[in-house]
Amino acid sequence: MADSGVIDGPGRKDEIERAKSEGKDLTKEEKQRLRKEKKQQKKIKEKKDDKASQENEKEKKPVTSAAPASQPPTQPTVQKAPSAVPATAPVSVPASEASVPADKPTKTKAELKAERRARQEAERASKQTKKGETGQQAATSKPKAPPSDLQPVVKRLPEHIQVDNPDVLKKLAKKLERQQTPEHYAAKKIPLRSDYGYKVSLFSHLHQYSRKAPLTQQLSIPSTVIHPAIVRLGLQYSHGIVAGSNARSVALLHAFKQVIRDYTTPQNEELSRDLVNKLKPYISFLNQCRPLSASMGNAIKYIKKEISNIPSNCKEDEAKNKLLNCIESYINEKIILAGVAIAKCAIEKQKISDGDVILVYGCSSLVNHILCKAFEKSRKFRVIVVDSRPRLEGKEALRRLVQKGISCTYVLISAVSYILPEVSKVFLGAHALLANGYVMSRVGTSQIALVAKAFNVPVLVCCETYKFCDRVQTDSFVSNELDDPDDLIVTRKGTTPLEGWENESSLGLLNLVYDVTPPDFVDLVITELGMIPCTSVPVVLRVKNVDQ
Amino acid sequence: MELQAVLMAAGGGSRMTDLTYNTPKAMLPVGNKPLMWYPLNLLEKVGFEEVIVITTKEVQKAMSTDLKIKDVKMKLDVVSIQEDGDMGTADALRHIQPKIKTDILVLSCDLITDVALHEVVDLFRAHNATMAMLMSKAHEFTETVPGQKGKKKTAEQRDFVGVDKSGKRLLFMANEADLEDGLSIRKSIMRKHPRMLIKTGLVDAHLYCLKKAVVDFLTENKSISSIRGELVPYLVRKQFSKTVNSQKLKDDTDDQTQEKNDGPANHELLISSRDEPLLQLAQERSCWNDHRGDMSEAYHGGKLRCYVHIMDQGLCCRVNTLAAYIEVNRLAPKLFEEPSVHPSADISERCQMGSDSIIGAVCHIADKTSIKRSTIGNFTTVKEKVKVTNSIIMHGVTIEEGCNIQGSVICSNAVIGRGADLKYCLVGNGQHIEPEAERTNEIIVGTDQLMEI
């Protein structure tokens, strides 16, 4: 339509000018038509401007400014389409881009289609020659992903799951360099941790680090670039000393408290802006030690918001005290009291009744807390702890429950279908609850939920609301965490069968950490807001966002 | 600030008096660099910017003139103590306690190592340990030591070191001298750590990371005078003592980092920190435990933890005996990529020099000399037809023509007369060897040194 308007416009203008010059009065219809055309032209101009500014933000590669209006919308879609994988990162559909193709004239639509197809083919061919790998699912999905002509959807993948793209790695290295604090004269930047070992091709887009090559190798020892509390925290994360969603968040907030205490505002800077900038390299450092969990992400967002909301006339001590109190209250409300509320809810609403046989998986601090509280309230039940290699966290859960006096059985996950006929309820902990109702938890949880469903045993997931995140995922491949593959190696009676695994070219060790459970297998989610079905998670998120 | 480095350079070198009666141990040349340059270099490489050096006035003077030490880019805060005093290492720490604001890394000046320091410090950080130390597998010294009559049969007092099955946690440490009736291990330790490995062939590198609370404890407890001899075994024992438990710690609401107990419990080593309840909470929620099989929580609820990193590869040597000194002269230059011949040395073309020899600055090496596997110090003059093999020649030495020096150590400013033949000898400072002398396996020192006992 735009083109036709453009084509017709000058024509119309000529007519009108002729009419004016001829001294004829413009009829009402002609005046209306004139007004319509002017409006259309204005709209087209505005859309062009919007598109141009949006492209400058979104485009990874610079777009030549001379490109006509029709080309830019096709270029970003072509570039992003090959990398788009279905149902991942937030989909942002700019309304203007959707409407622009609609404005295109029917004549040139076919031409544009043909142009786009040709460009896609060319890009696909060049990418395949570059990469040479064909085994990837992503590669096969590329030709399917290109958007239809109607609504080109721009999808952007988060950088942490594009490890196999060398451009993204370069960007990450540059970003870490930029985050170095300017005071330090030497090139003391946040080091980049390198991947270790052969990665299984399905997961080659994720990082895989080795515990024997800690990030502190590349840092100076009295660490000046990164606050010592954060270095200690990063080490504890990578060694697994602090593990579990709640523990990691609490430890993170504790470290942030120390950072805030030791912080002094430099001259000519505002605390609200400078402190946030100070925290950025720390967060990158922690991310490299171990990828951040959803709960940690939410905690960081909260802190950043609180810091930015500090009024500029506030004195430094006051501001610091205020921040420390905010952190204290966050931990108190969202973690401690939420745990208490969930336990109360579960016990009072008879979710744990006398004679119950409860199955738990791994070591979830919340589930252990609920069971201990129920036992204190003299409910008679017994627990079956299911465990899996290589972490064997179930042993720790077993220890805590037996210490309280609860009678427990311990099995490995391979025996789940054997033991399930005895079980009356399954209690699972969650690492995060995703916006489409999927539960992200330790690998093996979805297996347990599946088998429980097959046996018609109710599955209850316990999760605090601060772990709800607005990510959407339907499979465990896209976004996951790869742990150290050497953990899978076991030495029995002096022999290590997997000893030289790095030298075998066709052998890869995969140590996944998380998996997602679909909401059909989960019967109830117990949160501090009450007992909700899995599909109500987006509602809770919406309410939370409105509150904030 | 995370760690402060403290270098102990006041030691007298009591086990190698022949070398140290004129030159303080910290300034002995190893590979033509003063001995204390090596730990300073280690600290500098790792990223330290400031070091507190505890030393004597003599060493302080020597340091100010030495070129290599001036090359060191770190800020050296030199604290001098009395030379004659019986100041042990712990006493020295007590002396500098006002300067200490945070956890410390204590080094001895006679440590030459290429360890990756982050291994030791990571143990200290990750487990929030009270002490982390470095030990290394002892290597036999293969070089013949001058002045040794017969095989070395002196039973060196062995150290018994007990570690847990991960090899990192230090459970037991005692010297053979203290164990008269045999090695006894407390039942409480065995209950907590049923598998303990006891090692004897380890060398203590005297590199310790200590919490600030330990230094504060030392100021109150004046009976401890040596880190290695008394403080470390005390801390290791205290890990399993019943009194150091979480019940005694109270929450810190004020800004102090340490609580003081009054009364008879003055010698308690209390380690508390701000936000103790938060740390406790994180520990409770975490599904990690350092041991399996019993009902106790991580670290058995103990607040005091000692860790050790045992190096099995790489160089780690303490230069406190003559044998160690000779060994280290052979190995230390390999650590650095420096040219073996100093650019200012004047070496004639007809000199045969082996590739593993080191020539210092402003040397004059004349024709027809042969220098193999040796270290030659600065300002040395070697005249013609001299054969130097397997020897260490310090600074300012003059070797006249036709000498044959094998397996020997010649200290600074000595003069070897022409035609002398020295095998496995140690020539003291400023000594003159008469021409045509033939000495084998002797220690030639001045009479004034012989009078000292």
Class based on secondary structure composition and strand pairing of chain A: alpha/beta
Q: Helices and strands of chain B: which structural class?
A: alpha/beta
CATH level 1 name of the largest domain in chain B:
Alpha Beta
- Describe the sheet with the most strands of chain A: 7 strands, mixed
Number of strands of chain B: 32
Overall pLDDT of chain B:
82
Query: Helical residue percent of chain B?
Result: 10-25%
Give the overall average pLDDT of chain A. 80
Q: Which word captures the global form of chain A?
A: globular
Domains counted in the coordinates of chain B: how many? 2
For the secondary structure, the number of strands of chain A is 12
Rg of chain B, rounded, reads 25 Å
Strand content of chain A: 5-15%
Widest sheet: strand ordering of chain A: 5-4-3-6-9-11-12
Instruction: Tell me roughly what share of residues is in helical segments of chain A.
Output: 40-55%
Oligomer type: heterodimer
CATH-scheme architecture of the domain at 351-547 in chain A: 3-Layer(aba) Sandwich
A few lines on this structure:
Chain B: Its main location: cytoplasm. The complex is a heterodimer of chains A (548) and B (453). Chain A is an alpha/beta fold and 548 residues long.
What is the element layout, followed by pairings?
The complex is a heterodimer of chains A (about 550) and B (about 450).
Chain A: H1 2-22, H2 28-58, H3 71-83, E1 91-92, H4 95-103, H5 106-131, H6 137-144, E2 154-155, H7 166-178, H8 228-239, H9 245-261, H10 271-289, H11 294-308, H12 316-348, E3 356-361, H13 365-376, E4 381-387, H14 394-404, E5 408-412, H15 416-419, E6 425-429, E7 432-433, E8 439-442, H16 445-454, E9 459-462, E10 514-517, E11 524-527, E12 530-532, H17 537-547
Helix pairs in contact in A: 1-2, 3-5, 8-9, 8-10, 9-11, 9-12, 11-12, 12-13, 13-14
Chain B: E1 3-9, H1 17-20, E2 29-30, E3 33-34, H2 37-46, E4 50-56, H3 57-65, H4 67-71, E5 75-81, H5 89-95, E6 103-108, E7 111-113, H6 117-126, E8 131-137, E9 159-164, E10 170-175, H7 187-192, E11 196-199, E12 202-210, H8 212-220, H9 227-238, H10 276-285, E13 306-311, E14 316-318, H11 322-331, E15 346-347, E16 352-353, E17 358-359, E18 364-365, E19 370-372, E20 375-376, E21 381-382, E22 387-389, E23 392-393, E24 398-399, E25 404-406, E26 409-410, E27 415-416, E28 421-423, E29 426-427, E30 432-433, E31 438-440, E32 443-444, H12 447-451
